[in-house]
Amino acid sequence: MKRYFFTLFLFLIVLQIGTLSYGQTTQKERLEKHVYYMAADSLKGRKTGSKEAQKVAEYIRTQFEEIGLTTKMHSFKLRIVSQNARALYQNVIGVWEGSDPILKNEFIVIGAHYDHLGVKLKNNEEIVYNGADDNASGTAVLIELARNLVQQKELTKRTLVFVAFDAEEIGLYGSKAYVDMMRESEPNQEIVLMINFDMVGYLKQSQKLKIIGVGTVQNYSNYFNAVSFPEFYRLDLNKQDRSFLTGSDHDSFTAKQIPAFHVTTGLKSPYHKPEDDAHLIDYDGLSTIVDYFTELVPIFADDSDLRPSASLAKNRNYSKNSYFGLVAGIGNMHYKYRHGTVDGKKGVALQLGLYGKVSLSNSFALKGEVAYSFANRYRKEGMIQTHEVTVPVVLLVKTTYENWLELSTGIGGYYSYFFHLKEKNSNPIIKQYSPHEAGLVLDYEMRFSRMIFGLQYKYGLNEMIIAPQKEDKTRPRTVQFKIGFLF
Ligand SMILES: [Zn+2]
After folding, report:
1. Domain of 371: which CATH number?
2. Distance 58 CA to ligand 1 centre (A)
3. Which of 294, 315, 336 lies at the terminal end of a domain, its last residue?
4. How much distance in Å is there from the Cα of 272 to the middle of ligand 1?
5. pLDDT (tens digit, 9 = 90+) per residue, 5-64?
6. Contact assessment for residue 140 and residue 38, using Cβ atoms and an 8 Å cutoff
7. Taking a C-beta distance cutoff of 8 angstroms, is the pair 89, 164 a contact?
8. Of 10, 38, 256, 277, which has the fewest CB atoms closer than 10 Å, so is most exposed?
9. In angstroms, rounded to a whole number, what is the distance separating the alpha carbons of residues 433 and 344?
């Protein structure tokens, strides 16, 4: 009997130690556990939409629930045609509501994508792209940061929303769908800042943590100066919010004028290679990053003065209903003879003017210019230099990408008034002229943020020179390359 009690006693002690040590796993151990789980060969590279990716989504949701967040699966459809009918695309959302009755309607979104590339066949062998750095590392930081902010810190005034994004690798679809869903279904709730962790597993190797896009927040240095980063590493604050090399989910937010940061240790890992494995990750580094943001996030979440920088609205999201600017054109003009086969020589045609464009809908715009033009006009008889005011008006069909790229093409008309002309011939050739010219315009234009590049073709229906004979009748043709800047 005694012995039985003794065994029971021992058993209880072992059980106690077991529970204790489980409860006392360190942050680093938990980060390791998450990355090793997500980057295991059995999860076949978490291919976007696969059943393995769905397993990972469930894992993240379970973690969020254990931490105490209110969780939700946000499934969405891809906006591309080739959606696999059996695939399920879903973001995992965990909400930690803020304490301030007003500011809690403002969200700070902390995100990381969990999908990766899946498997590829090479010489009939399946090669798994485990994506430990891209982006099991960011997802692990997301989970442990949520745990710290919920379990160590007081409630923040603003609501913290933790989102594990899907479908990043095939075109940032998860984050785009999330921003759209928020705008449509929660119009009273506003996202005021987004922090994106993508590829954060190589702190030791890169010796620095990059935070890209800090310039999207007004007075950003005040926030970053409030918390110190471990001295042996460098904190690399990058004002710019766009880099074509490092596109990730934060772009879906800045595209909608929401300040966003991309946190990364850079391209030190075997990026998009099968060697991106869990054993190469710097787990002390991940832990350092979690600790730093545990201190930093509440500073953003509690400051009622947090707002987007002026440059975010001005440069990056230069999408408006109407634009004004300056545009210059350089090209040539020639006369096409209506009778006979001889055509005029090409002469230079320059233009400088004011530009205006008004959107009529998502797909149509009307643009006009009032420009001073200069041209060398060659006729059979000789050359004439003209100075005129030209007003082209064009109806455009347009497509816009992420607010900063707009492609348009259209058709319209122009009118020119000639206020000065000079003959470059010893014997004057013009007996009579009219100061008016009108015609058709074909136009192609690309807007790249605030810059305009375009090509314009003008097809005259009359000419200013009244030809003495029928066979001398011509029609002017002008082609110009345009470059412009919008205010
Ligand atoms: Zn990534």
Report:
1. 2.40.160.20
2. 20
3. 315
4. 9
5. 556 555 555 555 544 444 579 999 999 999 999 999 999 999 988 899 999 999 999 999
6. yes
7. no
8. 10
9. 18
Taking only the tens place, the pLDDT of each residue in 279-295 is 999 999 999 999 999 99
* 403 prior amide bond cis, ω within 30: no
Given CA atoms 228, 233, 238, 241 in this order, what sign does their dihedral have? Answer: negative
Q: Are 281 and 213 in contact (CB under 8 A)?
A: no
Work out whether strand 322-337 and strand 234-238 pair parallel, antiparallel, or are unpaired: unpaired
Instruction: Choose one of 267, 285, 315: the last residue of a domain.
Output: 315
Tell me the sheet residues that pair with 325. 355, 486
Q: 138 C-alpha to center of ligand 1: Å?
A: 9
| 277: nearest Cα among 130, 382, 118, 402 | 130
Alpha-carbon span 95 to 148, nearest angstrom: 14
Domain count along the chain: 2
Residue 462 belongs to domain spanning = 319-486
Per-chain residues with Cβ under 5 A from ion ligand 1: 134-135, 198
Q: Quick one: 54 and 146 in the same domain?
A: yes
Specify whether the CB–CB gap between 333 and 477 falls below 8 A: yes
Residue type, position 323, single letter: Y
